[in-house]
Amino acid sequence: MGDVLTKIESRKDGSVSRDAILEFEKTLKNVEGHIEGDTPHCPLEHSFSDGIYVRQISIPAGTLLTGKIHKHDHPNFLLKGEVIVVTEDGEETLIAPRAMMSKAGTKRALYAVTDLVWTTIHHNPTNTQDLGELEKIVIAPSYKDYDRFIKLESGTFRQLKKKLIKTLSL
Question: Which CATH number is correct for 2-140, 3.30.465.10, 2.60.120.10, 3.30.2130.30, 1.10.10.200?
Answer without folding.
Answer: 2.60.120.10
